[in-house]
Amino acid sequence: MKTITVDLDATPSERSYPIHIGSAILSQIELIMTHLPRKRVAIVTNTTVAPLYLERLRSALEKQDVASVPIILPDGEEYKNWQTLNLIFDALLTNRCERGTPVIALGGGVVGDLAGFAAATYLRGVPFIQYPTTLLAQVDSSVGGKTGINHPLGKNMIGAFYQPRAVVADSTTLETLPERELRAGIAEIIKYGLIRDSIFLAWIERNMTKLLARDPEVLIEAIYRSCRNKAEVVEADEHESGVRALLNLGHTFGHAIENALGYGTWLHGEAVAAGTILAAELSRRMGMISQVDVERIRSIYVQAGLPVAAPDLGPEKYIDLMGLDKKVAEGKMRFILLQQIGEAVVHSGVPAEALAETLLECTAHA
Ligand SMILES: NC(=O)c1ccc[n+]([C@@H]2O[C@H](COP(=O)([O-])OP(=O)(O)OC[C@H]3O[C@@H](n4cnc5c(N)ncnc54)[C@H](O)[C@@H]3O)[C@@H](O)[C@H]2O)c1
Ligand SMILES: O=C(O)C(=O)C[C@@H](O)[C@H](O)[C@H](O)COP(=O)(O)O
Ligand SMILES: [Zn+2]
Fold it and tell me: Domains in the chain, ordered, with CATH?
């Protein structure tokens, strides 16, 4: 097992927390035992993950005399909303969960974002622990404390920064993950390489076949190097007043795609992949990277079996949706662009013509 610490505030800090990454660690309750003094937890999961892993976690807790309240949500991005959040509050209240009752998220990013937001707001905050079970959640969403829900008008528009007390990423849970979901997780792994770690990007290119084949060692290495990158960014800028925005590469376009097509039609990772190609094309039009760079980026996503052509929604629709992006400041859109492969920047001066040209020339009819 490997452990990374996310150091928050001046260290040592009570808010700092470990990310444990390893094989078959779901049942190792000693990893979270210090957070369970009251011997009772609520586990938020969904109808797909519950039959696979809920009993394993519950019985491991039971062996340590920890009782658990299961809260099983409907599965899907289209359920990342107020109504589902309220199901969590209903269950927490009905079961008389207290301020000292931790909420555990067992599932992918949707469960994690919902459960984290519930933990941030229930009784004004209860302890939160992440057990991510998708590749995307293990490399990205379980770390860093972004929690929240979608709004019909925009992705993740309502939420809170709320850090977990611990993250336990059991790589063996990825054995049951559908192929399409595995590929979607790889999109966020590629992101770290593109924004700040060109050595990791070259490693991903060399190891893509093994990643797709779920080679256990390669998976653990990819999760570890991704989490190390994410932890460093979050430590530097927890609340996204600066460098954390770079983790949004491809997301300004990607979130517009997810919203326009209907939440869940394209997976988050798929929208980020196609969105990153648009960001790369825009970077080239801004004179920042070369055509050769764009083709290298495109071929990495192709290798991963991810979409590289964003849907043709028309420039107006994209621009309208992107106007609600959380990075908009004083009414001005800000884009994450590539200065070079391995170095991203926040750009607030993208000319309207360059954006329109990119959207016209680089999107495709579905
Ligand atoms: N908070 C953050 O920092 C952050 C970062 C990235 C993405 N996100 C959010 O995360 C969400 C996407 O997360 P995701 O890609 O994990 O999708 P997801 O949570 O929808 O999970 C994908 C699918 O896999 C199923 N599943 C989960 N674990 C499984 C397993 N081990 N075996 C079989 N099936 C399994 C789920 O039930 C679901 O059907 C989006 O809402 C996105 O906005 C948040
Ligand atoms: O942790 C972050 O910061 C990220 O931006 C990670 C992204 O992969 C993730 O999709 C995040 O939820 C997007 O955040 P948002 O603030 O644009 O909703
Ligand atoms: Zn993302």
Answer: 2-176 (3.40.50.1970), 179-364 (1.20.1090.10)
